[in-house]
Amino acid sequence: MKVYKVLPDYQNFWVFTLPMKNLILNLGKQIPPKKLMHFYKYNISLGETWTGVTASFDPIEGVTGGVNIPDISTWLSGSLVMSEKCKAEFTDLKGIGEFLPVSTNNGKYWIFNCMAIAAANETQSSRVMESEQVLDINALEFDSESVSDKYLFKTDYDGFRGLFCTDTFRRKVIDNKLRGLLFSEDLANKFQ
C-alpha cells in the first residue's frame, strides 16, 4: 500500500492563517494553553469547546503566485483545512477525527483535526532524538498492515509533525479536482 506525506501547495495557493493566540483567547479557559498549542500531539478533541473561530487566507510574500484559495490545505500538524465542497466529499473521515467550523472572508471552511495514529516501521525508519524529543527524521516507512485500515493519519515517530495518507485519500482528492495539496513519496521530507 502506497503512503504519501500530505503537504500544502503554497506556490499556487494562499495559506490558511489562524493565529494560535486567537485560539487561546477563544478556547484557553476550557483547555490549558500549552495543551491547546499542541492539540495534535496530545490528540485532543476540540469539538466541545470550539465556537466563534475566524481565520483568513493570505499569500506568502515571494512564494505564492496568484490569488488562488485552496479547496483543501493544511494548517497545523495533523490538521487539514477544507472548503464546504471538499468537506462534502470526505464525510467518511468523521470516524478518525473531527470537523471544526471556521469563518473566513472566503466563506465557511472546516478544520479537520485528524486523530488517527499509525505506527512507523522502526526498522526501516530513522530519526534524530535529543532529550526524548524528535529533532529530525532521516527516513520514515510504514508497514502496509499498520495503515491498511486508515487512509489519513499521523504518527508519534515524527513527533506528530506530519500528516500522511494512502493512495485512497490521494486518489479521492485528484478525482474530485480538489486543489491545494501536494503528495510526496518522501515521507521524511519537510518540503516538496
Could you please describe the fold and organization of this structure?
The chain is of the alpha+beta class. The protein has one domain (3-184). It contains six helices and twelve strands. It has helices at 20-27, 33-37, 39-42, 84-89, 144-147, 167-175, and strands at residues 3-8, 15-17, 56-58, 72-74, 79-83, 97-104, 107-114, 126-130, 133-139, 152-153, 164-166, 181-184. The strands form four sheets. Strands 10-11-1-12 form a four-stranded antiparallel β-sheet. Strand 4 (72-74) and strand 5 (79-83) form a beta hairpin. It is globular and about 45 Å long. The mean pLDDT is 90.
Please outline the helices and strands:
Elements: E1 3-8, E2 15-17, H1 20-27, H2 33-37, H3 39-42, E3 56-58, E4 72-74, E5 79-83, H4 84-89, E6 97-104, E7 107-114, E8 126-130, E9 133-139, H5 144-147, E10 152-153, E11 164-166, H6 167-175, E12 181-184
Antiparallel strand pairs: 1-11, 1-12, 2-3, 4-5, 5-7, 6-7, 8-9, 10-11
List the keywords.
192 residues, Immunity MXAN-0049 protein domain-containing protein, 6 helices, Imm11, alpha+beta
